[in-house]
Amino acid sequence: QVQVVESGGGLVQAGGSLRLSCAASGLTFDRIAMGWFRQAPGKEREGVSCISWGGGTTYYADSVKGRFTISRDIAKNTLYLQMNNLKPEDTAMYYCAAETRPAYYIGSYYCAEHQALDVWGQGTLVTVSS
Fold first, then answer.
1. CA atoms within 13 A on the CB side of 129
2. DSSP secondary structure letter of residue 74
3. How many angstroms separate the CA atoms of 119 and 68, rounded?
4. Each residue of 47-72: pLDDT tens digit?
5. Residues 95, 38 contacting (CB under 8 angstroms)
6. Could you please report the per-residue DSSP string of 3-52?
């Protein structure tokens, strides 16, 4: 069964750190693009960070550049999002997504065209207190 499952969310004070994990199954992990998205209450979903197949290119939203790092462990079929210096405006439900068939776009494409990723997790909640 093809699925991705997020974990690692929680409550943290401003300036703190969290690492989100996304465990993938049923996917050829090293040959697909994946990404992290978030949606805050009353706001549209936005692409936070995306990585192309083979890890060739990465993309970060301007709001998280220099604070968040996307990475993956091929052996564990797991995608990560290291989030440092968290701010209250980072509070949101964070979702992991993956493509089931390689399309070979660059990372930024996936964060802009969410529909290019067709497997989505249930989300993990990140709350940053001021």
1. 4
2. T
3. 22
4. 999 999 877 899 999 999 999 999 99
5. yes
6. EEEEE--EEEETT--EEEEEEEESS-GGGS-EEEEEE-TTS--EEEEEE-
Under 8 Å between Cβ of 110 and 58 = no
Which is it for strands 58-60 and 68-73: parallel, antiparallel or unpaired?
A: unpaired
Q: Which two tokens stand for residue 126?
A: 């990140």
Average pLDDT, the chain: 94
Amino acid at 119: V
Would you place residue 42 in the very low, low, confident or very high pLDDT band (cuts 50, 70, 90)?
very high
Query: What's the one-letter identity of residue 62?
Result: D
DSSP 82-128: EE-S--GGG-EEEEEEE-SS-----HHHHHH-GGG--EE---EEEEE
Bridge partners (DSSP) of residue 34 are 51, 98
Q: What burial class does residue 123 get, using C-beta atoms within 10 Å of its C-beta: 0-12 exposed, 13-18 middle, 19+ buried?
A: middle
